[in-house]
Amino acid sequence: MNITSQKEDNDMDIGSNIIENEKTFKTVFQDCSDVVFRDITIHGETRILLIYVDGMINSDIITANLLKPLIYDGLLQGLGTIDSVAQMCAQQLFPVLSTKKLSNFEQIAEFILKGNVAILADGEETVLLADVSNFKTRSPEEPFNEASIRGSKEGFTESLRINTAMLRRIAATPKLKLESMTIGELTKTDIVITYIEGIVSMPVLVEVREKLKGIHIDKILESGYIEESIEDTHLSPFPQMMVTERPDVVGAGLLEGKVAILTDGDPCVLIVPTTFWEGLLAHDDYYERFLFVSMIRWVRFIFAFFSVLFPSIYIVLTNYHIEMVPLELMMTIASLRERSPFPTVIEVFMMEFVFEGLREAGIRLPKQIGPLVSIVGALIIGEAAVQAGIVSAPIVIVVAAAGISSFIIPRFRFGYALRILRFPLLILSGTFGLFGLGIGMMAILIHLIHLSPFGTPYLTPVAPQIARKFTHLILRRPRKRVIETS
Amino acid sequence: MIKVSKLCLVVLLTVWITTGCWNLKEPDQLAFSLGAGLDLLEDGQLQLSSQIVIPSGMGGQEGSIGKKNKTFRVVSATGRNVYDAVPNIQLQLPRSLFIGQRRIILIGQRLAEHGIDDLFDEFIRNPQSEMRSRIYVVKDADAKDILAATPIFESYSSTELVDKQEAIGLKSYYFRNFLSDALRPSLQPILPALSLSASKQTVYSGSAIFNKNDGLKLIGFLNTQEAAYANWITGRQKRLVVTSFVKRGQGTVSLKLHTLDRRIRVKIVNHEIKIEVRLKGKGTLVENNSNLNPTKENDLRIIQVELSRITQKSVQQLIEKVQKQYKTDIFGFGESVHRHYPSQWKALKKNWYATFPGLDVKVKVELQCSDPGEANSSIKIIP
């Protein structure tokens, strides 16, 4: 059978002849060893065919509720007229929550592949589909890369339904809307757009809906596919969507009027729109006491700038504006530089390169050998390279300090942006000095101001300034105390 | 967007390649000059000495124990003016001279006596020049010798001379302060002076008085005590110790003053200028060899009055000495007159040089002992 005729078959509705139907399904699921065709004959006359994917369904339900009664007792009698075997199954035999009747081959096949069992009866032109899916999923654990000291320890899992349930638990209101859609010609991945009606910003919601509808792609393996398809520009190093594995972060976002996009099979949820500053805020900020949080926020802001600028500032000061460095420090730097063979810019580049390599190695290595990287890295890079006179000691400090400060950023992906930007700034400050660094910073600022993913300026609430939100950003203001009334 | 960024890149590259104005300098390509010393040689040539750092002598990490490497070297060259000597210094150095970290400027006595008003243009005009250098006059020695003196604590004698000002209780006095003093019409500049002890150590030795009406020539020195009073009047002293013999207590008393205040009042009565200098000081009694008990109010008052009287006498003497001997207004009395009587000052300005020696100056000193120290009466062995 060639492909075109198979396609035609798929578009067809099923007929009443069960043998024909079985044949068609067998062609559709040719060479799919996990698809099981189980047929039973009741009283030697009525033929029933079950089609399901092995491993995706709860076989207990089928054996206990369908096979046993039908095979032992036969069709139920005396319960009034039944239109069809399918209806009988749906109404009297199957204690499952979700059933539906379909007659289109393609749709039926899709549901079978998503964990439904299809029940075909001889002489009937509809198929009963019962959702008995029961695949193995991970139980909710604390997200590995979004740990928190205080607050919920549960994270999203790969199962869409569990994830939506978690959100529903956070916002137990019918206003929490979960719009479903399927994207991906081949993968048929379920996507859910969530928002809270009445709070959500409508233009954003409309834009998200339209953009998602406009995606024509054959596979969605991870939410990154969606992110890339709907983001405003690919060229910005800054992430235009927040990605989180924490239900409480999504909940907070929804309550602020944002839209979240959940993808089946992926614990990462996209939240749009996001701003630059949100990358520097952590979820704990809103759980801990405000004085400490306000201080730690400032530490973060300073370190964020530090992580981008520190190597560049070091180069600018030691190579162009030597008079600006305190004398004792300058003399120490000069004395340590005496032995190093390369220019400072090259040294910093080398070390940055090695640092990024080490970091990448740390991620890819299995947990057991992970510490090895840090030992080798610290010993070889930190000690030996300096002693061998390949790099000077201040460079190691500069690169390590900048590297560590990029890890302080709570949203890991914002750290990526800052780390990328370090390199162009290094080139600029190495060639043009403070002037070049200034130009680089201006370019970054112009880019940030220009960026407005999903209609929200990226630097809100600083530019455009929204006074109330601005103070809330730089000092997390405490919530109002409840005043006791007697 | 991409077009624009490409264009920017091309423009940047052309700027970088074609202009050649690449002022990148690695620290190991530079010879840091920490101190500049100016001397007048006997044949009338100007000698510029520079204290050059040897960074490898610092011994960054290892080998700091054991033999001590030389951390600096003094290089000298002559020239017709200051910058004329710089290329001559450069001839002796394998790295380019960098003066952006200069900490001190020293002026030799012979040069100072010759007049220094034609020396400072380079220090102001050269964009690399550091205006926050401290400036000293060298008494009875050459500036070069001071630069070459072995430091006690630090690696360079220049940085020690910077810290010295703080240690002896002076407020920071930068080169730029000296410039503004020298350019103000109603004040004569004084500079701290250094001399070399017999053991080749640098010693603070008071102040040098300049006369800017005559080419900024050095006209004399004040000793350390006089310099302290002069600096008190001009508001440049931070701390001061007053010691004197208290007659009624039959012993010496020392008062360490940590708050110094001054006020100069000017009155013109019948075209006669009357100046009243009020000095106030607060401090701790640190030594008491008299038989007075400073915890008793009466005795304390005796000590305070006595110390104030003696200090007042010394200050009065100093003012008279400056008026008679040097005839230069180092105290800034002209400044006070200018402030109090701006309209009259216009007429007085021209003749201030002549008016100053004959000014009627009254001094009032009020010393207060806010803390009698840890003991009451003096610890003396009772016979």
Low-pLDDT segments, ≥5 res of chain A = 1-9
| Count of separate structural domains of chain B | 2
Overall pLDDT score of chain B:
87
Cα-based radius of gyration of chain A, to the nearest Å: 30 Å
> In terms of quaternary structure, what is this?
heterodimer
**Computed structural class of chain B:** alpha/beta
User: Based on CA inertia axes, which overall geometry of chain B fits?
Assistant: globular
Largest sheet of chain B: 9 strands, mixed
Count of folded domains of chain A:
3
Number of helices of chain B: 11
Cα separation of the termini of chain A: 83 Å
**Order of H and E elements of chain B:** HEEEHEEHHEHHHEEEHEEEHHHE
Distance between the termini of chain B: 98 Å
The low-pLDDT segments of chain B are: 60-64
Instruction: Please give the most extensive interface between any two protein chains, plus how many residues each contributes.
Output: A-B, 25 and 28 residues
Instruction: Describe the largest sheet of chain A.
Output: 5 strands, antiparallel
β-strand number of chain B: 13
Query: Would you count the extended β strands of chain A for me?
Result: 10
Order of strands across the biggest sheet of chain A? Answer: 1-2-4-5-3
Tally of contiguous helical segments of chain A:
16
Could you describe the 3D structure shown?
Chain B: Residues 205-372 form the Spore germination GerAC-like C-terminal domain. Chain B: Pfam families: Spore_GerAC, Spore_GerAC_N. Chain B: This is Spore germination protein KC. Chain B: Keywords: Germination, Lipoprotein, Membrane, Palmitate, Signal. The complex is a heterodimer of chains A (486) and B (383). With 486 residues, chain A is of the alpha+beta class. Chain A contains 16 helices and ten strands. Chain A has three domains: 3-131, no CATH class; 160-274, no CATH class; 285-468, no CATH class. In chain A, 48% of the residues lie in helices and 12% in strands. In chain A, the strands form two sheets. Chain A has a five-stranded antiparallel sheet, with helices on both faces. In chain A, helix 6 (160-170) packs across helix 9 (247-255), helix 10 (290-319) runs antiparallel to helix 14 and helix 12 (344-364) crosses helix 14. The longest helix of chain A is centred in the last third of the chain and has 39 residues, at 412-450. Residues 1-9 of chain A have low confidence and may be disordered. With 383 residues, chain B is α/β, with parallel strands linked by helices. Chain B folds into two domains: 27-222, no CATH class; 224-377, GMP Synthetase, Chain A, domain 3, CATH 3.30.300.210. Chain B has eleven helices and 13 strands. Chain B has helices spanning 2-19, 82-90, 109-114, 121-125, 143-148, 157-167, 175-183, 224-234, 297-326, 333-340, 342-355, and strands at residues 30-40, 46-53, 72-79, 96-98, 104-108, 134-139, 190-196, 202-211, 217-222, 240-246, 251-269, 272-288, 360-371. In chain B, strands 1, 2, 3, 4, 5, 6, 7, 8 and 9 form a nine-stranded mixed sheet that branches. A four-stranded mixed sheet of chain B has the order 10-11-12-13, with helices on both faces. The longest helix of chain B is centred in the C-terminal third of the chain and has 30 residues, at 297-326. The radius of gyration of chain B is 26 Å and the shape is globular. The chains are: A alpha+beta (486), B alpha/beta (383). Chain A binds chain B through residues 235, 318-320, 322-323, 327-328, 330-338, 340, 343-344, 393, 430-433, and chain B through 1, 16, 22-28, 30, 32, 34, 53, 55-61, 98, 100-101, 103, 128, 130, 155, 159.
